[in-house]
């Protein structure tokens, strides 16, 4: 096997190992980046929902109370946040926002099984501030960011303790089947935002493939450059010296000396060959005399 072939095989093996390690790290980084991007989107949606709820509670509800309109759904903070997101969801159908509850006033807010599991985690651990979860759906993986809905304001119990204390308009609209029996500091539900990961994962995969492609191109360019240098600096001089040594071994003493260039190992080999050729020529001359 030729020296250049051995060199290329060794270099290719090193590249394959290096590319595999780089691919593993790059894939992990791309996946983590995609997850962070999706989580950032979810956090923004949670903040927007909380902002809509606070605005309704602090600005809209007092105006409706002052106007003497009685109970109106528009005064419910959580309903305002969900209604606002439903309008956004028309353009972004894969995104979802829900104030899920185990015992909701509005049946539409009743928690699904996986949402109920999250709420029960908040009920079991009062120090738990948020939960990040991922689930598979027909359209791909979905990342969910959940925060507990806890009753920290005693005035909330005026509507959610017992039906007889609730506003008549609320009872007339939603009935008495749900939304009552809540307790102070209890996690009655969870604010859950779900964001699809398909777009972020596709973007991360594209970046990952671009990275691998770029790395492969750099390797090919480097390999070609190294092969050119190897041929010029090692293979070609070595072949020339080997040819000259072969002629000398056949008895040709008039073979010209090889002129080395530089002071590297090839030049040292050439000088050694020239000394050997001169010594052999002198020996042959003495034998001839």
Keywords:
289 residues, alpha+beta, 2 domains, four-stranded antiparallel sheet
Brief digest:
By secondary structure, this protein is α+β, with helices and mostly antiparallel strands. It is built from seven helices and four strands; from the N terminus they run H-H-E-H-E-E-H-H-E-H-H.
β-sheet strand percentage: 5-15%
The biggest sheet amounts to: 4 strands, antiparallel
Oligomer: single chain
Overall number of domains: 2
Instruction: Give the C-alpha Rg.
Output: 39 Å
Structure description:
The chain has 289 residues and is an alpha+beta fold. The chain folds into two domains: 3-10 and 206-288, no CATH class; 37-197, no CATH class. It has seven helices and four strands, in the order H-H-E-H-E-E-H-H-E-H-H. The protein has helices at residues 3-67, 77-89, 113-124, 157-160, 168-174, 198-249, 265-288, and strands at 96-101, 131-137, 140-150, 187-196. The protein has a four-stranded antiparallel beta sheet with strand order 1-4-3-2.
Structural topology:
Blueprint lengths: L2 H65 L9 H13 L6 E6 L11 H12 L6 E7 L2 E11 L6 H4 L7 H7 L12 E10 L1 H52 L15 H24 L1
Antiparallel strand pairs: 1-4, 2-3, 3-4
Helix pairs in contact: 1-2, 1-6, 6-7
